[in-house]
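Re: nickel (II) ion structure - here you go.
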Amino acid sequence: MAVRPILRMGDPRLLQAAQPVAQVPSPELAALVQDLRDTMAAANGAGLAAPQIGVGLQVVVFGSGLPNPRYPAAPVVPPTVLVNPVLTPLGGEQALDWEGCLSLPGLRGQVPRWQRLRYQGLDEHGQPIDRTVEGFHARVVQHECDHLWGKLYPMQMTDFSQFGFTDQLFPDLS
Ligand code: NI
């Protein structure tokens, strides 16, 4: 339907908690999901959350089913629409790895995340989603759902020596 502008860090709307979607499915939700998909695809994103296009609702999209040019070494994550998510960390183990965000263009940082987690919610048709995942898939879910709680990845970082511009950190990728 439409590629929407992506809000960048500093916009106060990125720091607000998103509201649950009251009715699933709905024509409004279908239109929002299509805009999220179109915007994510146009930016080669691994995921996108509704607050990043200025919509304060608990909706995220992530995954592609294809290798992502921004993360060529990352495992494939199935294309997913997740509404009103609930995340439950499993095992208590954290892992550190690089993340980027379409709201912080050109930057990457090392972010600690739960290595394994269960996530639950609805898809855009109202069908339940209940998955237990680990590694990159778990990382993407945590990053996207953090946008729903008003958190950007630098707010989860512990070592700011591991934060910089992608073309300086990874000259071979640019
Ligand atoms: Ni992000």
